[in-house]
Model the fold of this input.
Amino acid sequence: MAFAYNEGMRQADSSTVYVAFGGNQGDVRSTVQSALEALSALTGSGVRCSSFWASAPVGMAEDAGEFLNGVAAFETRLEPLGLLQALQALEVRFGRPAAHGVNQDRTLDLDILLYGDQLIDLPALQVPHPRMTSRLFVLLPLQELLKEPLQEPGMELRIPGENRSLDELIAAAPAMRISRSPIPPVPVLQPPRVPDGQLRAD
Ligand code: AMP
Done:
């Protein structure tokens, strides 16, 4: 599975990864853009992003800020656990306390939704992300990202271990108040290059 925009630089043994991002503290757009730029440099891959989708916090204090969520897609040669470690390091670098609860304010949350067509069931990592199929704040941006014109024509996303299509999952997901935010999406990110044309690791 590859995207037209980065076909030329795709490594033979790389995988397409979908990562969910979100936060409700600080300048979420700027935090997400900085984190994805770092990820682009680390993986040497272009990164495509959905819009930001806004939803009210659930099960949190009344004054908790709204959540902005979205999905990013890129190629990587990092192994799944290496990628998880890199994402967790970015969460900490961008202000999230290393120890945190489930329903807590956060500057940045990064979850691996899909890693190629792999099914992973390790104590530290389950892929597809176990809750992605019931979360509209993941399914709607993922659907948006897959509809973009850069996508290979006729390509349909398959969620390993799941028989239902994305449209069916969206129809069955618990209702929540969610809308596409007017905040401008993070543009397509290209990895920085060093003068000799080699990709630079961060
Ligand atoms: P959260 O607080 O939602 O960011 O959850 C973080 C915890 O979920 C970490 O301990 C991870 O090891 C674990 N985890 C399991 N599967 C995943 C996944 N697909 N993506 C990110 N974190 C995961």
Remarks:
- The helical segments are 28-43, 80-93, 136-146, 166-172.
